[in-house]
């Protein structure tokens, strides 16, 4: 005699498929979920063209920088190609630095532009 029923041993039985009993439903807490209005997502075309261009330039810069650093480290660690991997890491770090400096310049321009409006 087996402890497990062979019909349940095939993996087709799921304990979560069963409906809760009346006793389980009585023990479950009743929660009032408030209704919330979903916020409106602004259309991307609302942003000025210059800002969108700056944003996507920074996105591309940081993506390429991350890719270069990652590939460079993989070359060094797994292939032992220190020269090629090191060059990729240095290129990636230079792109990170350039992207960060560009980001800081854009944010400082925005702060200076806001101060000029007063």
Automatic annotation (TrEMBL):
Which UniProt keywords are present, listed alphabetically? Answer: Membrane, Transmembrane, Transmembrane helix
Query: Which stretch is the leader sequence?
Result: none
Specify the domain of life of the species encoding this protein.
Answer: Archaea
Query: From start to end residue, where is composition biased (Acidic residues)?
Result: 1-29
InterPro entries to which the protein is assigned, alphabetical? DUF7322
Q: Where are the transmembrane segments?
A: 55-78, 85-103
Domain spans labelled DUF7322: 45-105
Q: Where is this region: Disordered?
A: 1-47
Pfam families tied to this protein: DUF7322
Q: What protein does this entry describe?
A: DUF7322 domain-containing protein
């Amino acid at each position: 005699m087996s402890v497990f029923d062979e019909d349940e041993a095939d993996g087709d039985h799921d304990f979560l498929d069963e409906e809760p009993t009346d006793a389980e439903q009585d023990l479950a807490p009743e929660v009032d979920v408030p209704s919330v209005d979903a916020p409106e997502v602004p259309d991307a075309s609302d942003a000025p063209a210059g800002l969108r261009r700056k944003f996507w330039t920074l996105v591309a810069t940081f993506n390429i920088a991350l890719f270069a650093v990652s590939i460079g480290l993989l070359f060094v660690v797994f292939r032992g190609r220190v020269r090629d991997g090191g060059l990729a890491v240095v290129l990636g770090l230079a792109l990170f630095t350039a992207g960060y400096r560009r980001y800081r310049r854009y944010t400082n321009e925005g702060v200076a532009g806001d101060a000029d409006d007063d």
